Amino acid sequence: MPSFSSFFEEAWELDQNDPLGKYRGEFYLPDGKIYLDGNSLGLLSKRSELALTEVLDSWKKLGIDGWVQGKRPWFYFAEDLGQKMAPLVGARPEEVVVTGSTTVNIHQLVATFYRPQGSRRKILADVLNFPSDLYALKSQLILHGYSAEEDLICVPSDPSGRYLDEDEIIAMMNEEVALAWLPAVLYKSGQLLDMEKLTKAAHERGILIGWDACHSVGAVPHRFAEWGVDFAAWCTYKYLNSGPGGVAGLYVHKKHHGTKPGLAGWFGSDKERQFEMAPEMIPGSDAGAYQIGTPHLLSMAPLIGSLSIFAEAGMEAIRKKSLMLTDFLFKMVDQIFSSYGFETGTPRNPKQRGGHLALEHPDALQISRALKAEGVIPDFRPPNVIRLAPVALYNSFIDVCEAMKRLKQIMDEKKYQHYPTESKEVT
Ligand SMILES: *Cc1c(COP(=O)(O)O)cnc(C)c1O
């Protein structure tokens, strides 16, 4: 078994040569902790904090006039942020708006673009997607008078229970499918699907396709516009560090602009005419049309700061470091932790890997509790997955090394056995 000191040496070297290392100091890292949970809730940056205080200040000083006055008039905030976020998903500026939550945006997109015709009325999803996505899809089918059981068809997982097989997804894209909704990166295993290939396959079969980019945005580059992706949604409180309850992203390809929103509300109006207060809505001509009500300014403000870091650091550099971090984890698991009964449940091929590594162990819940007690913050996903997300903007290679050193101690001393095996809390 190699010694940890050689890993520490390697980590030190990697940190020395890390072009993104300078951003770590811009974030509030929880005191004394090694935070590896940025794929659940990203950390606060000083720039985000400042952006939030600026919006509070505009409220303090301007009151109602903040909608149209000040440095960043609130009335245009959602569209402005959408423009700033567009490069992260490879969209045109007018194709993205910051609005709602992921789940609400899924409802909006399905309500808008699910147009069953005759026997082409099924929605294609997968069994490994985040539950909220499936709940939303099922309730949309029921609202249309269809059956959640028969009309939602889910691609099964491979025998390991971790991954989806892209060819199997394509094989299920038949003439009964009207719309497909798939995760770009699977939230548990971290598998990254080939969005370009699957989008093309869907279109060749007359199917509209949308992507849930919650676990890919901010970790993986996207080229939605170029791939012709029809629509997408993602949350911003994970890798994009917008804070708890941060407002989500929504993308609609230009070719669909002008399609009436399925769930209409006055903030989807043409901005120049919204205050005519007409009884008939005049929808906007860009992705802004799919907003519903008044934007949640205070939960959007932190994105101003956070997106400025992404714009500066660049997605390619972020992706490169992220892969190096998960590669480093793979190496340590292979050389040290397989002998403790750990397995990795994430694709090794970088083209198929998102931003985190799933570490599997039969005692994963107890081990993740022990890790927390020892100052390492991972998260646990039942039944046996510990997710480790080293985030390129604020984690170092030494972080990863130190976390794994503590894990080894927990295993050597069997400390995890002191923790309960039932689960209740938010992790
Ligand atoms: C995090 C996540 C969500 C959360 O949706 P909210 O509406 O923000 O609660 C939904 N889907 C996926 C795939 C996620 O990873």
From TrEMBL:
Entry-linked InterPro entries: Kynureninase, PyrdxlP-dep_Trfase, PyrdxlP-dep_Trfase_major, PyrdxlP-dep_Trfase_small
UniProt pathway: Cofactor biosynthesis; NAD(+) biosynthesis; quinolinate from L-kynurenine: step 2/3; Amino-acid degradation; L-kynurenine degradation; L-alanine and anthranilate from L-kynurenine: step 1/1
Ligand binding (pyridoxal 5'-phosphate): T102, T103, F130, P131, S132, D133, D212, H215, Y237, W266, T294
Swiss-Prot/TrEMBL cofactor(s): pyridoxal 5'-phosphate
Protein name in the entry: Kynureninase
Keywords: Hydrolase, Pyridine nucleotide biosynthesis, Pyridoxal phosphate
Entry function: Catalyzes the cleavage of L-kynurenine (L-Kyn) and L-3-hydroxykynurenine (L-3OHKyn) into anthranilic acid (AA) and 3-hydroxyanthranilic acid (3-OHAA), respectively.
Modification sites for N6-(pyridoxal phosphate)lysine: K238
Pfam families assigned: KYNU_C
The family this protein is said to belong to: Belongs to the kynureninase family.
Molecular functions (GO terms): kynureninase activity
Organism: Thermoactinomyces vulgaris
Enzyme category, top tier: hydrolase
Catalytic activity: 3-hydroxy-L-kynurenine + H2O = 3-hydroxyanthranilate + L-alanine + H(+); L-kynurenine + H2O = anthranilate + L-alanine + H(+)
EC number: 3.7.1.3
Keyword Hydrolase: yes
UniProt subunit comment: Homodimer.
